[in-house]
Predict the 3D structure of the following.
Amino acid sequence: MARNSEPTTAPLLHTPAAATTTKLNKFVALLAFLSLASAVVFAVLYFSNLGSASKANDDKAARPLSTLRRPAVVLISSDGFRFGYEHKTDLPNIRRLISNGTSADAGLISSFPTLTFPNHYSIATGLYPSHHGIVNHKFVDPATGDRFNMSSHDPRWWLGEPLWETVARHNLTAAVYSWPGSEVKKGAWDCPPKYCPPYNLSVPFEERVDAALAYFDTDGDEEVPSLVTLYFDQPDHLGHQFGPDDEVITESVARIDDMIGRLIAGLEERRLFEDVNIVLLGDHGMVGTCESKLVFLEDLSPWVDVPRDWVEYYSTLLSVRPPPGVSPAEVVEKMRRGLGSGRVENGAKLRVYLKEELPGRLHYSDSERIPPIIGMPDEGYLVLLKRSNRSQCGGAHGYDNAYFSMRSIFVGHGPRFRKGWQVPSFENVEVYNVVNAILGIDGAPNDGSPSFPQSILLPTK
Ligand SMILES: *[C@@H]1O[C@H](CO)[C@@H](O)[C@H](O)[C@H]1NC(C)=O
Ligand SMILES: *[C@@H]1O[C@H](CO)[C@@H](O)[C@H](O)[C@H]1NC(C)=O
Ligand SMILES: *[C@@H]1O[C@H](CO)[C@@H](O)[C@H](O)[C@H]1NC(C)=O
Ligand SMILES: *[C@@H]1O[C@H](CO)[C@@H](O)[C@H](O)[C@H]1NC(C)=O
Ligand SMILES: *[C@@H]1O[C@H](CO)[C@@H](O)[C@H](O)[C@H]1NC(C)=O
Ligand SMILES: [Zn+2]
């Protein structure tokens, strides 16, 4: 599962060490160029702020803990927090973490497909979805015919070793206040009720923050948790309803900032804010969708019939599993003919692949759970089965992770993070090794690069 990675240097930024990248195709190379261009802008802005640059040069090693006996990480996910949302309005608390911490200059790169469960579990395991098994929100295990859905807690679906299991394996405490997969009992992790409450969408954000803080109030010989996770289901829901540019998103992002402020205040009260490593990130981005940007599968019927029950998933991603006896290659060939005919509305906006032909950078072929035919609509387009008179605009994600709109954020703050530092964007499968490196424990084999943590964390003495 080790990832083939080649080191690249980022000469323009004041980066700590080598960052890694996967093999790039032309399209990504273009995006990388754009990213580099924006890095130049960042760098100019950054170095013109001499105060923070010289301060950054001063921190050469991890700062000592004053209250805690061992390192701790609070890992926070804000669902659908698209890269750039942090500039929508003044967010004093997130700004504080960014300016006194380390952040990814052009955001955190989601794994493909850029959906909530696959990405939360990639962050938790360091594995691409094809390797951790949660390849989509809905899929079929072809060996048994069983269907996965988001309330499936059977461990046979959830492969790899998530952070909470890694922590438990080292006899340390993890408190997982909602994270996809946390309720699955596997290995050393049995989801203890106190440290693993069932996911409940109705719990107000304030209560979630207070519950995370309360895990640090141990009595007697109870261990302070090494890992505490916190999950906010916004601004994702509002992003779907109203699109990423609506004013409600600005309000939602400000509310997330308030929650970060509540967490900071609670940690300060406990004299823990400078001891705890806070990692704030999101699972994916969001892009606007609208009625004119649709591709209908029924329009392909003159070339090929794609019945409803072959389709495992559709919208921002199309997954098709034809029954045995039907050649996927033939179906793809006919779909392509239809889409390329000029006679299918928006046909040019949908690319269909046999999964083996998908670009390698997507890492989306190495699992039987991934159906043989995968369709990828262009950014902002949706694939639907049939025409309807539904007319609505909103937002969506799930697209190619090369789109900037599918990126989220990464901010690290605490004793292991340099202050006022920016690193080049990286893939979210790197986060697993970063958290384990902070905690000083060995993770399971994964798709992250073993040397990545050194490039982003201050060394311990
Ligand atoms: C960074 O930390 C310092 C020292 O704790 C604090 O005074 C300052 O307000 C912080 N920066 C921001 C932008 O909040
Ligand atoms: C989801 O899966 C669970 C078991 O894995 C099953 O009990 C439940 O009925 C499924 N829900 C839906 C909506 O299919
Ligand atoms: C964890 O505790 C068990 C039982 O007390 C022990 O056998 C095991 O060696 C410990 N593992 C580590 C990594 O400390
Ligand atoms: C979910 O949380 C709400 C608000 O705290 C509570 O009223 C409700 O009982 C909880 N539901 C479950 C199933 O625990
Ligand atoms: C959509 O509305 C038109 C009239 O406005 C109607 O003729 C047509 O049958 C409707 N189509 C569907 C799929 O409901
Ligand atoms: Zn979503």
Remarks:
- Residues 170-171 surround 2-acetamido-2-deoxy-beta-D-glucopyranose (ligand 3) (CB under 6 Å).
